[in-house]
Amino acid sequence: MMDGYAGKVLRIDLSTDEIIQEPLSKKMCEEFIGGRGFVAKTLYEELPPDTDPLGKNNLFIIATGPLSGHFLPASGKTHFGSKSPATGGYADSNMGGHFGPALKYAGFDMAVITGKAKTPTYLYIRDDIIEIRDAKAYWGKGSLTCEEMMKKDLGEDFQILTIGPAGEKLVKFACISHDFGRQAGRTGIGAVLGSKNIKAIAVKGTGSIPVFDLKKAYAKGKQAFKKVSEKPGFKGWTPEGTAGITDWVNEVGSFPAKNFQTSHIDHSHMINGKKVLERLKITDKACYCCPTPCGKYGKTKTSLGTAYMEGPEFETISLFGGSCMLESIEEIAYANYLCDELGIDTISGASVAAFAIECYEKGLITKEDIGKEIKFGDFDSIVYLLDLMSLKKNALGDLLSQGVKIASEKIKKGSEKFAIHVKGLEWTGYECRNAPSMMLAYMTADIGAHHNRAWVLGHDVVGAGTNVHDLITAGADSDTRPKAVIN
Hints:
Layout: E1 8-13, E2 18-23, H1 26-32, H2 36-46, E3 60-63, E4 78-83, E5 90-95, H3 99-105, E6 110-114, E7 121-126, E8 129-134, H4 143-154, E9 159-162, H5 165-168, E10 176-178, E11 182-184, H6 189-195, E12 198-204, H7 214-229, H8 234-240, H9 246-251, H10 273-279, E13 281-285, E14 295-302, E15 305-310, H11 314-323, H12 329-342, H13 346-361, H14 367-370, H15 379-391, H16 395-400, H17 404-411, E16 421-422, E17 425-426, H18 436-444, H19 457-462, H20 468-473
Parallel strand pairs: 1-6, 7-12
Antiparallel strand pairs: 1-2, 3-4, 3-6, 4-5, 7-8, 9-10, 9-12, 10-11, 13-14, 14-15, 16-17
Helix pairs in contact: 1-2, 11-12, 11-13, 12-15, 13-15
């Protein structure tokens, strides 16, 4: 066993109920480190290119890294990989929370799942006890509801991954949820779990991870925490989380409006990070061993109901508040909650809703196709569309559940020109006509359009070499910041 690693790989074949624990390869660790490296290597070597993303032979991989579960800042990430239902290509996604560390404490650096269970099931992992259990009681439940039920049944100390009804129905942008607000949102990997009849994965680990020199490792961890907390932007970044960049992105002309028709909105001050704190927040929320509690757990009250949720973060704000044009932070937060409960990516969910509204405005789909009139900025329209696509309630809902690329190819009539995606993955929350490097980053990202592959927007706007996060959170007067509006 190598220091830093738990030392084992868990393999589960759902078709045969075979469960194998095998040693982690030292060579693999040296060459691919962990996380995304483990995912990419395993998919490349074990998955034939013609595999159906929603077929039983697709792989679903959970991977951690050598720093996961240690006393180091931001060491709580968990990485997932598969063949994407959304793009038909390489899929990976990650989430914060506490699942990855728990998996390592249970003794596993990686889990590789294949096959398809005959009935709805969930995976139970408690150290060396691994079981494939019946999940009929949880099937059909929302992601958040399912996690709450399982915590009650298994114990609060279990870390749990869930899918919602959208994952069960194989919506191509279904996500995986954890810790009541953490999502592996992109590339549709929630649908991969749904295709395998897996509703949830629950893990509890009580072991430890070997460290070469525990005293020195602990000292390095303290040093790293101190370094992070002394960053100029730390105090500005922490209170509002990612929602804190809302006004800045809007001011520099990169905020998507009306399905990316324009790059600026007039109501950003009504949906920014300050409004999250003023109107929603109950408490801060951090992932495992993270000094920056960017999560904001809160409560929202709207005309359609009240909900508790984490967020919204910037991407959700920009796409529901800009691309869909909702002007209330409470309504955006409720849309966030609904996506979490249904089990869909907020980025793709909002983008598909905005695409559908533009199609309707241009006369490419009808009220009869949809089931009601819809328009930008209308809360009822957005909630209706999220429900329609996530549950595949009619033929149009089924079509929209496949994402904007496939939907536009079937609707045709010029809709392809405003289906905003790369490789079938909807854009994240930046309008790029003012940011060519960011557009290039979208175009060249291996999984499709995603800001986490190369976030270079700030360098487009203020020049290379600038610490953009510090600039945003420095509290400078907005009149001194660069601005651009592209119409």
